[in-house]
Amino acid sequence: MNIAVCVSHVPDTATKIKIGDDNKTINKAGVTYIINPYDEFAVEEALTWKEKAGGDSKITILSVGGDSNKETIRKALAMGADDGILLKDDNPRDSMGIAKALSKEIKSHKFDVVFCGKQSVDYDAGAVPQMLAEFLDYSCATVVVALKMDGNKIIAEREVEGGREVVELELPAVIGAQKGLNEPRYASLKGIMSAKKKTIEEKPAAQAENLSEIIKMYSPPAKQSGRILGTDASAVPELVRLLREEAKVI
Amino acid sequence: MAKKILAILEQRDGKLKKSAFEAATIAVRIASELNYEVEVVAVGNEITNLSETGDYGIKKITHLKSDKLENYSSSGYSEVIANFAKEIDADYLLMANTALGKDLAPYIAAKLNAGLIMDAINIDSSSGEIIATRPVYAGKSLINVKFNSQKKVLTIRPNIFKPAVKGKNESEIIVKEVEPSNLKSKVIDFKKSDSKLDVAEADIIVSGGRGLKGPENFHLVEELAEALGGAVGASRAVVDAGWRPHREQVGQTGKTVSPSLYVACGISGAIQHLAGMSSAKYIVAINKDKDAPIFNIADYGIAGDVFEIVPVLTKEIKKIKLQ
Lengths: 250, 323
Prior knowledge:
- The complex is a heterodimer.
- Chain A contains six helices and 13 strands.
- By secondary structure, chain A is α/β, with parallel strands linked by helices.
- In chain A, helix 2 (69-79) crosses helix 5 (189-195) and helix 3 (95-107) crosses helix 4.
- Chain A is globular and about 65 Å long.
- In chain B, a hairpin with a 2-residue loop joins strand 2 and strand 3 (15-16).
- The longest helix of chain B has 17 residues, at 18-34.
- Chain B contains eight helices and 18 strands.
- Chain B has helices at residues 18-34, 74-88, 99-112, 219-228, 236-240, 271-277, 294-297, 306-322; strands spanning 4-9, 11-12, 15-16, 37-44, 60-65, 90-96, 115-120, 122-124, 131-136, 141-147, 152-156, 172-177, 185-192, 204-208, 231-234, 261-265, 282-286, 300-302.
């Protein structure tokens, strides 16, 4: 089985976001970058599928971005993926631009399944898996929390309001992983060492115009810290009164 | 001929959802501001309450009907909607950023080579084009975004834009039979979760964190949520510890929520959590550590023991609800 996993390189979720001087991007100074947390579920799922399929199954990691994305590709290789491809572009792209670059590369391989995180935790749009599927003419399910193969079909459960939709897909498919799909493994020391020897091919990302444009980035209005009403249950009546009379939410 | 904005209205079990009326309301608003014409469309088999859209200023609604689309199919839905958008030559497509909207909008944008803006919390058309505001980094910052494309797809966050009733009217329903050719991904079953209300849709959320000391104590949170008619949420710490299911997680790598009231019980307020809930209208924090970061954003706090305070609060709320 030939498997691809698309990964993005994002600020650690513990990062306090500061706005950059251009007022359009974040200030990257001092920011630690990590593999997008949802992509770890995607990598783990790929590894499980590879183990099940056996034979000469292979996992290729793809990422669109600058040189630093190689750290994230390396992380996925350390978890057990086989090789990586960096589609280079130092300029920010919208979801469509990312999906176009990925789809162009994926078309030149023959992948049975493409795993992605359901969204990256920077821009949070959650659009790349679906767009990728559209450009590849693959079937797709995203926000997937359970997955199994059933002959040539995939049965995926996706999280929606009030429950899970059970979706039937045909291969080839794009799967967007949601937290809960699996428990991502830690890279072993051996994995980390061997990842250093694995190949990361670099090529320019296919050109694509951004169809949307950020004109300003800013911090949300700071919330005024409120009142501490007390330190025990005697403060409850006052809390209830405020919720009713001041906030009017109950 | 006037340019067109197309609102896509979501139905579940044959009934338009509340978020559908929010989308209709915004479409009517944008159309009047930009001098566009509004079209609305709903996809499915039988849909019972289409004419209600009239109350929100919609004159006619097109029902793209097929028994093959009784259940959601991302490939089938996106195909018939994109075809309809092309047929009427709509410039803007708008829908609610629900699970369905989040899933569907990117397919449609890709089919139409349209710019896509997801999860708008504000829409400003005073410059003659739409500038949408949306949260990024789970709400740690905001961006204003504009389109650079002829065709534009926009989703709006539920519960932010209130549906505006314009008067009692029935809209004309135009049924258009469609035949989707692409059903390679389709919903075959639905597993209902045991929780009554989803955090993503709730107007009141009561969340619990590590301060509850164990999953066996979460009934305190559940009872308070029940008394308030709200949903149960959880911090990442307790989800990662396996106390609560991931669907309840609020924050980065969980859900970003904007309810009217958010009650945080035993949650200290890690930055990932604050990002996901600080846009709640009112925040109540109950935590024994008075220096916990959650108090920096809480409107009202009680710096005390959750085990003592939460049951009393539940009792007081129940009392009021009985009055």
